[in-house]
């Protein structure tokens, strides 16, 4: 019997295959989210509005973490209730609904420096705080289409975020591929601020900060000319936009990473005396988004510090001799560390982890005759986001074809 498909069967199969994208499109449902932020310098606050517009999908309920000392005057259409630090919002069905609240911007760290601040002239704040984390219950398969718009005080001329502008230039397109509910996270700056930007292939890099502060905008962009190719070779695909926010005192005197963005104090050198770079360290966090699992914070911190030296060397921003001195400094700084296990890796522990990663890189290169390196391990770890020592061992073994002897150490017991 001839079991070959007939011409009619082939046509039916082709029609079915062509129809599949239509089915997938039909199964996708959407709703609109419009964020409007109005800064109130005299009150030290931001007035935030979140508007939901049902489409083929809709939000049924939102639960937002909003501590009462930071989020006040919470009100909205439908039902709004507070229980401790949680606000539960049930919008009315079948029509647009709005939630509004005030957010207290200024926040000081224990050392007295600010990691969020609003003045008469400018504001630096994280979108993660303007719009707090939320658990959203929506119609099955629903996805959001989100826009972010700012209403700036008189005299405030500029605003920048980690997101690209909409076609009309009046708002920012908020996209978070990892989640169905798009929230405007990452660092933001607005007011009388100066901004410089460059485009590297498909990535936009923007550096912004208050006009009165001495900020090395062009120096940072010049850094990127050498570093962007090395970032891409080491980590793979880069984000479409990176925003670097900088300011002087009384902002916190360090670097803080966020989604597709970071804050760097204006006084931080691009290359420190010990040969590391806070800028490259934080950018490694931003691009890879790797974080350590319980007890393994050293993985994220040591990777960032290792590459803050290594990528400078590869980009010829550090000579081989200077990079070797930086690694020697790390070895000496972490020489007394007996274990890497910790939920918060700092100083000597991170330095000891840098040396372990350097030894692992050398082991992989030797075992594969320089065909593979620690870069291959990192690219394999990026999709995991939360990385444990077991994940590190597994990917090192995948790279070499055998278990790593370097990672068989009492430091990881």
Distance between the termini: 65 Å
Radius of gyration: 25 Å
Low-confidence stretches: 1-26
Based on the structure, what is the oligomeric state of the protein chains?
single chain
The biggest sheet amounts to: 6 strands, mixed
Protein model, in words:
- This protein has 413 residues and is α+β, with helices and mostly antiparallel strands.
- The chain is 31% helix and 31% strand.
- The strands form five sheets. The protein has a six-stranded mixed sheet. Strands 8-9-10-15-13 form a five-stranded antiparallel sheet. The chain has a five-stranded mixed sheet with strand order 16-17-18-20-19, covered by helices on one side.
- The longest helix is centred in the first third of the chain and has 21 residues, at 7-27.
- Mean pLDDT is 92; it is low at 1-26.
Q: Can you summarize this structure?
A:
The chain is an alpha+beta fold. The chain has helices spanning 7-27, 127-130, 217-235, 278-288, 297-314, 320-333, 347-367, 374-381, 389-400; strands at 29-40, 45-54, 59-65, 71-76, 79-83, 86-90, 97-104, 107-108, 114-118, 122-126, 134-138, 142-151, 158-160, 172-174, 187-191, 193-200, 203-210, 241-247, 255-258, 261-265, 291-292, 386-387.
């Amino acid at each position: 019997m001839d079991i070959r498909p007939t011409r009619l069967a082939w046509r039916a199969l082709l029609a079915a295959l062509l129809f599949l994208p239509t089915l997938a499109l039909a199964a996708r449902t959407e709703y609109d989210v419009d964020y409007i932020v109005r800064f109130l310098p005299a009150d030290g606050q931001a007035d935030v509005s979140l508007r939901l517009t049902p489409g083929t999908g809709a939000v049924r309920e939102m639960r937002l973490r909003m501590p009462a000392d930071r989020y006040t005057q919470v009100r909205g259409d439908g039902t709004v209730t507070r229980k401790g630090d949680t606000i539960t919002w049930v919008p009315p069905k079948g029509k647009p609904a709005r939630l509004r609240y005030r957010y207290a911007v200024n926040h000081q760290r224990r050392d007295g420096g600010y990691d969020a601040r609003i003045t008469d002239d400018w504001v630096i704040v994280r979108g993660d705080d303007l719009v707090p984390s939320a658990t959203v219950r929506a119609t099955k398969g629903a996805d959001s289409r989100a826009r972010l718009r700012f209403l700036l005080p008189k005299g405030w001329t500029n605003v920048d975020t980690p997101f690209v502008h909409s076609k009309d230039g009046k708002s920012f397109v908020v996209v978070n591929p990892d989640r169905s509910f798009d929230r405007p996270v990452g660092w933001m700056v607005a007011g009388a601020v100066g901004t410089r930007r460059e485009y590297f292939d498909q990535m936009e890099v923007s550096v912004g900060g208050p006009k009165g502060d001495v900020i090395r905008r062009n120096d940072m962009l010049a850094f990127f000319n050498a570093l962007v190719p090395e970032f891409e070779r080491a980590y793979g695909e880069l984000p479409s936009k990176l925003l670097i926010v900088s300011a002087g005192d009384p902002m916190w005197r360090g670097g803080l990473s966020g989604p597709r963005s970071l804050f760097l104090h204006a006084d931080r050198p691009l290359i420190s005396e010990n040969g590391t770079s806070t800028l490259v360290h934080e950018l490694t966090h931003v691009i890879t988004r790797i974080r350590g699992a319980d007890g393994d914070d050293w993985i994220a911190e040591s990777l960032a510090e290792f590459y803050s030296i290594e990528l400078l060397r590869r980009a010829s921003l550090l000579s081989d001799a200077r990079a070797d001195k930086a690694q020697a400094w790390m070895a000496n700084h972490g020489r007394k560390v007996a274990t890497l296990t910790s939920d918060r890796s700092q100083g000597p522990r991170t330095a000891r982890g840098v040396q372990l990663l350097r030894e692992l890189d050398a082991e992989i290169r030797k075992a594969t005759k320089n065909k593979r390196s620690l870069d291959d391990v990192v690219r394999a770890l990026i999709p995991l986001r939360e990385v444990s020592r077991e994940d590190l061992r597994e990917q090192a073994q995948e790279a070499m074809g055998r278990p790593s002897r370097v990672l068989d150490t009492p430091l990881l017991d």
